[in-house]
Design goal:
Blueprint: E1 2-5, H1 8-26, H2 31-50, H3 53-57, E2 60-70, E3 73-79, H4 81-107, H5 113-131, H6 136-154, H7 160-192, H8 209-220
Parallel strand pairs: 1-2
Antiparallel strand pairs: 2-3
Length: 221
């Protein structure tokens, strides 16, 4: 496969963050404009993702390395066919969900609608980041961001039941990822010297059967 260095994955992730800022500035007093930013960001994100389809179908992998932290440990993005399919599906569903949520929020006179749309935009940015992650470290970071950004959505109604459910949601997801997933990633990096997603994997011949079994169990936990 040919590799193409492009900022398109970064733009596809970042458009929701721009929308988040515009939604925050617009606020509750100009609901129509606030929701225009929400829908527009979804459409732009979807079009950016779709624009990468011809290249990927032609056998090109789109890559972008945002920052290198240590050798073999980068925040980087890689757009292949599977990640692109996931991102396209998620971004299209975001448009539909946004349209539905506008009607729902208005008809039920829900409070804190600006916070809801801000959290939704941040979560969608993280979802696309996870879809385009080039390695386990990047995937882990965006997975944690998804958890944190969806917490306000779970707790949105702010009833005792919603807040209790949101706390459990946060404990379960953050607790398991920090206790098991992060440890598995550390062991993988220690054994392989990289966390990049590669055809055939990165742990072949890199450790004992016991160590590889432990890593497998931690990833599955």
């Amino acid at each position: 496969m040919d590799a193409l260095i492009s900022t398109k994955p970064l733009f596809a992730i970042g458009v929701s963050l721009v929308a988040l800022v515009l939604i925050a500035i617009t606020g509750e007093r100009r609901a129509n404009l606030r929701e225009f930013w929400t829908i527009s960001a979804g459409v732009i994100k979807f079009l950016l993702i779709i624009s990468m389809v011809p290249l990927v179908l032609g056998g090109t992998v789109i890559e972008y390395n945002l920052i290198s932290i240590l050798p073999g440990l980068d925040i980087a993005f890689r757009v292949d066919s599977l990640g692109l399919a996931f991102a396209a599906t998620a971004s299209f569903l975001w448009i539909l969900t946004t349209i539905y949520s506008i009607g729902y929020m208005r008809s039920h006179h829900e409070p804190n609608q600006t916070r809801f749309y801000m959290s939704f935009a941040a979560a969608m940015s993280a979802v696309i980041g996870a879809a385009f992650a080039a390695n386990m470290f990047t995937l882990f970071l965006f997975y944690e961001v998804i958890t944190l950004c969806t917490f306000p959505l779970v707790a949105h109604s702010q009833t005792a039941t919603a807040l209790n459910g949101a706390r459990k949601y946060l404990v379960y997801l953050l607790g398991t990822s920090l206790a098991f997933l992060l440890f598995a990633i550390f062991l993988t990096y220690n054994a392989a010297g990289t966390l990049d997603f590669q055809p055939g994997g990165i742990l072949t011949g890199k450790g004992s059967d016991l160590m590889l079994s432990v890593i497998f169990i931690l990833f599955m936990a």
